[in-house]
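Design job #97: recover the sequence.
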């Protein structure tokens, strides 16, 4: 249960960031407003899951594992925003994964 909560929390946080980024990419006011609402809702749901995770796990586990958000952000930026991936980004991503395993192990 706690693993799913952490994954959901980080996924929703990154998704919220993606939609808020999309606001800067569109010109139409209705789309901007829709992206703003979606981004805010995803962030809000992520925050609720963060509170649930804090009830299930110690703060010293939950806070460092919130860095998993950067993994989702990496994937979303590549898939939906056509951002380039370089070796430094991959090394950083691998360090986050190793660090997450170290924290939970």
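Job complete. Output follows.
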């Amino acid at each position: 249960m706690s693993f799913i909560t952490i994954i959901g929390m980080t996924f929703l946080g990154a998704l919220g960031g993606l939609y808020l980024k999309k606001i800067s990419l569109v010109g139409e006011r209705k789309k901007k407003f829709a992206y703003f609402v979606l981004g805010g809702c995803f962030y809000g749901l992520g925050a609720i899951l963060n509170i649930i995770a804090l009830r299930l796990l110690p703060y010293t586990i939950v806070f460092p594992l919130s860095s998993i958000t950067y993994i989702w952000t990496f994937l979303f930026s590549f898939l939906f925003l056509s951002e380039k991936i370089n070796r430094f980004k991959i090394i950083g991503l691998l360090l986050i994964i190793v660090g997450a395993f170290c924290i939970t192990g």
